[in-house]
């Protein structure tokens, strides 16, 4: 009798494990993917404001380009180290949603302080530029610590939500689509604020960016709330195939050649997107001397095109070879766009609108496939997924911070060579040469990669 009971229990347990295995490799439905994509909206909209307006805001209120770059670098360094620690702690203790919620709360509270004026300067009645730079740097660091916790928890969730390689790309693609929505939302908010508040005085400029920060936080928090309420805590990491898996050592990843290849591609992709975003507004206004509306219209075209492409990528059944092919295509497009940006003259500046279409397509192709390569690297090794995402993000933040600091150190506070049709400025190099060079290196690295499907590959549409 006891033997019969044990056999029944064993049979039930085996059937449960088989069912869990089938669910873990089954393509996700549209709603889980959709809710997941919402989870990074607060990070995305604040990051868009960070890279698009931070340097512009700080120089407009009187900081030198080098001091403004110092503020950004301090935030990037804090973000980089925080991603490593967050990744290690998430791998040890799990609880993705708790980390996500705590990080989002810190982002919401601290972001307004970055664009809200120098509060310590008012408290201590100091007019020192050094003290002002240090104050902004502290707020920037606090904001980026929260940003890092949210980013690592959200990115590493992908590998623990499903083992289906196609659905993992779906999650990354949907997240990228919401990144485009966040960027477009920011530019809509900024356009409205700039139209309502005339930034002729120091106080008006601060009010402009303060309201942009407040409205961005409100929009992002709404989406994060929906994500936290609608997305279940991933369980694949805790127990898979009936076995509790030990935490994977860092050295396991360091011994894999694919780790370094994926890391380099991810860093190069982030350099392309972030550096180009930081200098886009400077380029269309100072170098091409286009209308002020172009400062919002050109980025809007880029993000609309990226959004459309991100949606279309969700309908493809993905393999490692397709990831490599689409990533290479995005890099080649950016090389072409970089050449156009370097050589474009002011009397034909309208061509920038056409180039922005190709930039948007290239950004989407590189971001979706570049992030998805991480999931091919992780495969079934779920107890190291947060470290992979955190370490790659660390390299991304440090490299972007250093690149922007170096470029901004050679930047002038006022545009030069207004009388000429063409000038090789730091802005032109930052928007054209740096992304194109990174894209070229990305093509070379991608050709050497061996992306094998580490889990069951289901050749079916991305969304069930």
TrEMBL record:
<feature type="transmembrane region" description="Helical">
    <location>
        <begin position="351"/>
        <end position="373"/>
    </location>
</feature>
<feature type="transmembrane region" description="Helical">
    <location>
        <begin position="209"/>
        <end position="230"/>
    </location>
</feature>
<feature type="transmembrane region" description="Helical">
    <location>
        <begin position="177"/>
        <end position="197"/>
    </location>
</feature>
<dbReference type="InterPro" id="IPR036259">
    <property type="entry name" value="MFS_trans_sf"/>
</dbReference>
<keyword id="KW-1133">Transmembrane helix</keyword>
<protein>
    <recommendedName>
        <fullName>Major facilitator superfamily domain-containing protein 12-like</fullName>
    </recommendedName>
</protein>
<dbReference type="GO" id="GO:0015293">
    <property type="term" value="F:symporter activity"/>
</dbReference>
<dbReference type="InterPro" id="IPR039672">
    <property type="entry name" value="MFS_2"/>
</dbReference>
<comment type="similarity">
    <text>Belongs to the major facilitator superfamily.</text>
</comment>
<feature type="transmembrane region" description="Helical">
    <location>
        <begin position="325"/>
        <end position="345"/>
    </location>
</feature>
<dbReference type="GO" id="GO:0008643">
    <property type="term" value="P:carbohydrate transport"/>
</dbReference>
<keyword id="KW-0472">Membrane</keyword>
<feature type="transmembrane region" description="Helical">
    <location>
        <begin position="102"/>
        <end position="125"/>
    </location>
</feature>
<keyword id="KW-0812">Transmembrane</keyword>
<dbReference type="GO" id="GO:0005886">
    <property type="term" value="C:plasma membrane"/>
</dbReference>
<dbReference type="Pfam" id="PF13347">
    <property type="entry name" value="MFS_2"/>
</dbReference>
<feature type="transmembrane region" description="Helical">
    <location>
        <begin position="427"/>
        <end position="449"/>
    </location>
</feature>
<feature type="transmembrane region" description="Helical">
    <location>
        <begin position="296"/>
        <end position="313"/>
    </location>
</feature>
<feature type="transmembrane region" description="Helical">
    <location>
        <begin position="33"/>
        <end position="56"/>
    </location>
</feature>
<feature type="transmembrane region" description="Helical">
    <location>
        <begin position="257"/>
        <end position="284"/>
    </location>
</feature>
């Amino acid at each position: 009798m006891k033997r019969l009971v044990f056999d029944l229990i064993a049979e039930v347990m085996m059937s449960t494990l088989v069912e869990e295995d089938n669910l873990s490799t089954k393509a996700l439905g549209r709603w889980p993917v959709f809710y997941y994509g919402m989870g990074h909206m607060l990070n995305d909209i604040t990051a868009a404001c960070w890279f698009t307006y931070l340097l512009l805001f700080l120089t407009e209120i009187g900081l030198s380009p080098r001091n403004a770059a110092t503020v950004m670098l301090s935030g990037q360094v804090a973000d980089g180290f925080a991603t490593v620690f967050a990744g290690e702690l998430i791998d040890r203790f799990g609880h993705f949603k708790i980390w996500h919620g705590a990080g989002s709360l810190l982002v919401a509270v601290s972001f307004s302080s970055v664009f809200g004026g120098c509060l310590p300067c008012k408290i201590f009645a100091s007019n020192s530029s050094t003290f002002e730079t240090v104050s902004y740097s502290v707020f920037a660091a606090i904001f980026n610590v929260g940003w890092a916790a949210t980013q690592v928890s959200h990115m590493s969730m992908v590998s623990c939500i499903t083992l289906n390689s196609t659905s993992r790309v779906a999650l990354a693609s949907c997240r990228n689509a919401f990144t485009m929505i966040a960027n477009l939302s920011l530019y809509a908010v900024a356009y409205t604020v700039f139209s309502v508040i005339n930034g002729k005085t120091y106080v008006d400029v601060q009010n402009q960016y303060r309201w942009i920060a407040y409205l961005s936080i409100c929009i992002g928090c709404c989406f994060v709330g929906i994500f936290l309420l609608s997305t279940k805590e991933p369980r694949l990491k805790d127990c898979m195939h009936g076995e509790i898996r030990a935490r994977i050592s860092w050295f396991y990843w360091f011994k894999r050649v694919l780790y370094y290849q994926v890391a380099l591609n991810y860093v190069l992709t982030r350099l392309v997107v972030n550096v180009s975003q930081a200098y886009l507004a400077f380029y269309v206004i100072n170098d091409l001397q286009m209308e002020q509306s172009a400062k919002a219209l050109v980025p809007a075209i880029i993000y609309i095109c990226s959004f459309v492409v991100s949606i279309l990528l969700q309908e493809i059944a993905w393999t490692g070879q397709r990831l490599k092919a689409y990533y290479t295509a995005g890099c080649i497009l950016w090389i072409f766009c970089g050449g156009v940006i370097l050589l474009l003259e002011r009397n034909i500046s309208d061509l920038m609108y056409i180039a922005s279409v190709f930039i948007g397509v290239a950004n989407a192709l590189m971001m979706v496939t570049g992030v998805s390569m991480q999931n091919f690297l992780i495969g079934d090794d779920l107890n190291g997924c947060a470290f992979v995402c955190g370490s790659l993000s660390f390299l991304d933040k440090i490299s972007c911070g250093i690149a922007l600091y170096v470029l901004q150190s050679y930047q002038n506070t006022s545009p030069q060579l207004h009388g000429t049709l063409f000038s090789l400025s730091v802005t032109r190099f930052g928007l054209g040469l740096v992304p194109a060079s990174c894209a070229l290196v990305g093509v070379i690295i991608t050709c050497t990669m061996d992306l094998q499907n580490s889990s069951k590959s289901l050749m079916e549409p991305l969304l069930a």
